[in-house]
Write a structure and sequence with these properties.
This protein has about 180 residues and is mainly alpha-helical. It is built from 6 helices and no strands.
Length: about 180
């Protein structure tokens, strides 16, 4: 009959296995940002960043359309739109500088053209309260999508997406309150 392993030995083996698994995971994480894979295409993080920037740009366009249709809402909407523009810029500025300009610009053009839900595609409601509700819905939808997407992106981009999603949720709240 074999002797059971000594508790300290079992603990050391588990620690060793856990350390080895952790080291393998860390080895898979690159310390330097690499925008292109071996095939020359953008990494998943860069695609997510470009998609997020395109979504923010489309939302900023929607704000501009509402402002054009309802100039009386300018005091309320301009600061929110300015934040959305800064969000787009934050996603663009975070793009890896080593990506070639043609790849970056084509990625941003394709991401904004193929955005899953383009908030500016529908006409602006004629009633200002309805327009605010529509903007709130667009902000909420985008914030929810970003909250889901941040689980699939690396650290710094996840933090940026979480922050922008939280800001979008706050914008949705302010717009909803303004529509009352």
């Amino acid at each position: 009959m074999p002797f059971p392993p000594h508790p300290r030995t079992a603990l050391r083996r588990r620690s060793l296995l856990a350390s080895a698994a952790g080291a393998a995971l860390l080895a898979g994480c690159s310390g330097t940002p690499d925008s292109a894979t071996a095939g020359g295409s953008l990494s998943a993080a860069d695609r997510a960043r470009a998609r997020a920037a395109g979504d923010s740009e489309a939302l900023a366009d929607r704000y501009a359309a509402v402002l054009g249709a309802h100039p009386a809402l300018a005091t309320q909407l301009r600061p929110l739109r300015a934040e959305v523009v800064r969000h787009a810029q934050a996603f663009r500025d975070g793009a890896v500088a080593s990506a070639s300009p043609s790849v970056s610009s084509s990625a941003s053009a394709s991401s904004s053209a193929s955005a899953p839900t383009a908030p500016s595609a529908s006409p602006v409601p004629g009633d200002p309260k309805s327009a605010l509700k529509e903007l709130a819905s667009a902000e909420r939808t985008l914030a929810d999508r970003r909250a889901r997407a941040l689980l699939d992106v690396p650290g710094e981009l996840a933090r940026l997406m979480a922050s922008v999603a939280a800001a979008g949720a706050a914008h949705a709240y302010l717009l909803t309150e303004g529509a009352k």
